[in-house]
Amino acid sequence: MALEAFAEIDARWHDQISGLDVAVDDIPRLLPRDPETVQWPDEVTADGAVPLARLIPAGIDVHGAPTRAQIILFRRPLESRAKRGADLLELVHEVLVQQVATHLGVDEDTVDRGPE
């Protein structure tokens, strides 16, 4: 489902996001200290205190090797927010649009429209 939701974005932005990986993890490994007042950074797409996805920028690992940017979708929180399969596909697409917009430094409408 993640690949299907990402396909339209990739078709529009392929050249700009060729160094971006998309992965799926069951649950987030980051939790807020205080769920009532959590302020997530732009790299995290969340529903209140529950992270739905996270962007990890490209960088350098502990061995000095370059790493690729990666969007990690959190499967269980996404599934629990969708009523039907079509809802899940739409939600995953929306989350990916938000994450790609953050990665590219553009707004979400630009991601939906495609590059100029």
Overall average residue pLDDT: 94
Biggest sheet overview: 4 strands, mixed
Number of helices: 4
Backbone CA Rg: 14 Å
Number of domains: 1
CATH class: Alpha Beta
CATH architecture: 2-Layer Sandwich
Task: Write a structural description.
By secondary structure, the chain is of the alpha+beta class. Helix content is 39%, strand content 23%. The protein has four helices and six strands; from the N terminus they run αββββββααα. The chain has helices spanning 2-13, 75-81, 85-104, 108-113, and strands at residues 20-25, 44-47, 50-56, 59-60, 66-67, 69-74. It has a four-stranded mixed beta sheet with strand order 1-6-3-2. It is globular, with a radius of gyration of 14 Å.
